Amino acid sequence: MKFYVEKKCTVKFYCELDASYSVFRSIFKKMIMNSWQLKTPVVLIIFNRPDTTEKVFEVIRQVKPPKLFVIADGSRVDRSDEAEKCAAARAIIDRVDWDCQVFKNYSNVNMGCKRRVSSGLDWVFNTIEEAVILEDDCLPHPTFFRFCEELLEKYRDDERVMTITGTNLLGEWKTNIQSYHFSYYFNCWGWATWKRVWQCYDVDMKLWSEPEVKKRIGDVIADKKQYFNRKRLLDAAYLGNNNSWAYQFFFMCLLYSGMSITPAKNLISNIGFSKEGTNTKVSNDQRANMPLQSMNFPLKDPLGIAVDREHDYRRYKKVWEKSLSKSILRKTKRLLVNSKSM
Fold first, then answer.
1. Residue 284 within any structural domain of the chain
2. I need a labelling partner for 249 at 20 to 30 A (CA). Which of 93, 189, 255, 262 fits?
3. Residue 290 domain-assigned?
4. What single DSSP character describes residue 316?
5. Taking the alpha carbons of 264, 158, 316, 47 in that order, is the dihedral positive or negative?
């Protein structure tokens, strides 16, 4: 009986010691997180939506970047209330109340998304070597910034890696074994990159006209259905049929077999799906307002540096294949409605 009591007390002692260690480790982890300070410049791209701009700005304020670059387009002459909205969005930037250098690149005329973003990022990377980039409708989790900063440093000189994105369109991916993985699919909803990458960017996609280039990109994607799904949008970008700058960047990444780092958890929520959006107008899109998650630190690297083909395929099936089907269905319904009204 005596032995049993001693054994029980010993086990209890070790359990209490282990519990105390867990509490201490949790407190220490929070102290490390609270002591972290962002050093990387942040770029914020704004236009005519002060409501979403304010929400994104408030998260930026939490992490207090030492440098903030702001790119803003001008209002359209045929939109009577747009000048006021643009002014309201720009006024939010004047509320910076931390130690920060603010650089503004504001256009007096409307350049459109394609030219305004591309010229603005030219300006940014003529000044600095790397940056975290957000648009006015891409709401980040605060841990997004540390995630980007640590990986910008880690892969700074690795030319296989071209971007770091904060969006995981699957929500989660292999969170039990890693903090991020590599993909051939770029996403511009909260991302980071280096000057070494941006200097390869061509907004006019001139090389897309070369048959050999299309063949090379098909080889990189390595799946006919996925290739032709993306080719449709790359064709439209090349012909100027959409007002996007991002497909050109995606093209550049594929051209150089460049990989994008994607987080195991979703760190960005696109809050801009509405009729006021430039390229995101369908409010019930499955990609809209995705839940935000917190990234854990220290980061756990994936096993090796190679594209996760399974992830890219599942992303294609969930997002792009269904998006194409829905787009065709919407256009068909529109044609039927128009034909009935004639």
1. yes
2. 93
3. yes
4. I
5. positive
